[in-house]
Amino acid sequence: MISIFGIPSQALFGQLLIGLINGSFYALLSLGLAVIFGMLNIINFTHGAQYMMGAFVAYLVLQYLGLNYWVALLIAPILVGLTGVIIERLFLKRLYQLDHLYGLLLTFGLALIIQGVFRNYYGSSGLPYQVPELLRGGQNLGFMFLPNYRAWVIFFSLVVCLGTWFVIERTRLGAYLRAATENPTLVRAFGINVPRMITLTYGFGVGLAAIAGVMAAPIYNVSPLMGEDIIIVVFAVVVIGGMGSIMGAIVTGFALGLIEGLTKVFFPEASNTVIFVIMAIVLLIRPAGLFGRAT
Amino acid sequence: MSDAASLLDVDGLQAWYGESHILHGVTFHVLPGEVVTLLGRNGAGKTTTLKSIMGIVGQRTGSVRFDGAELIGRTSDQIARAGLAFCPEERGIFASLNVEENLLLPPQVRPGGLDVAAIFTLFPNLKERLRSQGTKLSGGEQQMLAIGRILRTGARLLLLDEPTEGLAPVIIQQIGHTIRALKAQGFTILLVEQNFRFASTVADRYYIMEHGRVVEQFANAELEANLDKLHEYLGV
Ligand SMILES: Nc1ncnc2c1ncn2[C@@H]1O[C@H](COP(=O)(O)OP(=O)(O)OP(=O)(O)O)[C@@H](O)[C@H]1O
Ligand SMILES: [Mg+2]
């Protein structure tokens, strides 16, 4: 067996793959947070619950309507995004003039309520969700075995992340978003309905979380608490990358997944804490985050 | 006072920022095709008047009629869509947008705006800098961009807030030339200025503001006769 630095290559690549998978979810989730923060100036603590809701939509539409993974991948972001639109219209829009703390408390409270409701009905043990038929099995790459579904997760997460980046940084619609992030009053005085844009942005960011939730369902099981576990790490990722930077969120998400995987190989004891250690260091050296603009 | 033929008719306009009452009943009008200038000292309420017309102050009362339709009570995006465009004092160039994106940002609210080629004819500098970050331009170029981008929208009334502030004489001349060209093309312009020497090269009429009110008005032909009063009001 080949080994690298005394580590069997199978184990190394295996952990790197797990790192990339986790990184795919970190990237999708921190991207959604960055999009929302950029436009609404709210740190969306409901994000983990919305990720969980995405997974549950996949589970429920399969269970009750017989709709498969691919359909779920399409309708979960729409449905969960719609709940986001309602939350923004009912609650968040009242908070923009107030201190950050209010948005944080509100979204945190909503997360607790949503998770509580799901736990009440579905317990906390987790429900199984099958890998879609088309993506069962895997490829033997020689140096490792690559399950098809995991390859798909990495690929699709990259597509969604880069697609979002492209729309925001390179299109007309994205120019409206960037401009409204900088100076919403002036953009509105040009005749653009900025409040509606803010609502849709929140719905979109929440939809990204739901996509991540559907993709996670076959890997991690569907559980009311699945969002709570991952979102803590994702907030650390966002702090490291810098709130509000689109590319920063994507790159940091994937990079930290990989670093976590590598730590599992070389220093397993630290694998659960490495991201938080990096966060502490980044906060000391660059408080605005690696890609953040100091304000 | 109000003229049936006015394009813009401001009557008894009051405005507040939070608790502070800034405008105490501003009344003036602008006829179609005119260039009208608001003059006044620092803090007289000129910018607040433009912002109140655009619907971007906290609270306002009174009447602002554009083309006969009341604007008080409408949101600023609805006001823009009625055919007004605003060029703010601080220019409002977006740092996260390049020059081209800044130029194309304001949506067309009605037909009849200038096309991009016509804007480049007015401001040739912009054409060379399309890929630059908006805020990397010189002050004069940023001002040209700030004016240029609202010409595409089809708005008939342009509100320009101190477009010459802090600019070199040669650029001020170019902006004067632009304003005359726009007037010749049928735009109506409400200009805020401190520099009445510049204003006198473009304006048809003047209103002088003090402490949130219009206190004086005269036509361009009467400027020389009013110089003493003007010096007194502007404190120059
Ligand atoms: N955002 C604000 N909040 C509270 N007060 C304000 C605000 N903006 C302006 N003011 C006050 O309103 C008054 C009028 O200000 P405004 O900007 O309209 O004056 P101006 O005539 O445009 O002056 P300048 O020539 O300096 O631009 C001033 O006393 C100013 O301090
Ligand atoms: Mg002013």
How many structural domains are formed by the residues of chain A? 1
Overall strand count of chain B: 10
Instruction: Calculate the terminal CA-CA distance of chain B, rounded to whole Å.
Output: 30 Å
The assembly state of the depicted protein chains is heterodimer
**Which secondary-structure class do the elements of chain A indicate?**
mainly alpha
> For the report, how would you describe the main beta sheet of chain A?
2 strands, antiparallel
Q: Which CATH class of chain A?
A: Mainly Alpha
- Reported by name, the CATH topology of chain A is ABC transporter involved in vitamin B12 uptake, BtuC
Strand ordering within the main sheet of chain B? 6-7-8-3-9-10
Strand count of chain A: 4
**Shape designation of chain B:** globular
CATH architecture grouping of chain B: 3-Layer(aba) Sandwich
- So, the CATH homologous superfamily of chain B? P-loop containing nucleotide triphosphate hydrolases
What is the CATH architecture annotation of chain A?
Orthogonal Bundle
Q: What general outline of chain A do the C-alpha atoms trace?
A: globular
- Overall number of domains of chain B: 1
**Mean of residue pLDDT of chain B?**
93
